[in-house]
Amino acid sequence: MDDRTLPPPDVRALMLRLNARAWGIAVGLLLGGGLFVATNILVLKGGPVVGPRLGLLGVYLPGYRVSFAGSLLGFVYLFVIGYGLGSLIARVYNRFAR
Hints:
This protein has about 100 residues and is mainly α. It has one domain. The protein is about 65% helix and about 0% strand. It has three helices and no strands. It is elongated.
């Protein structure tokens, strides 16, 4: 690949940057959606004891239970945590990509 096919350096620098808001939303949806789906699968599966290990998240996420209402609350918690984590990843990456 020769230099004639490469974009100018200022365009390359702009293309290297990550959108912190987009990364935050993507990671938040991934984490929140994952907990929402996992909780509801266990709720639908049912049984005498539903999700004892997943229920331990209630220690870190106050109010979270293995129930439909708990899955909604857990989605909100993990979306916020994921948004912060994804945003942090993008900001750190952008700092080093300069």
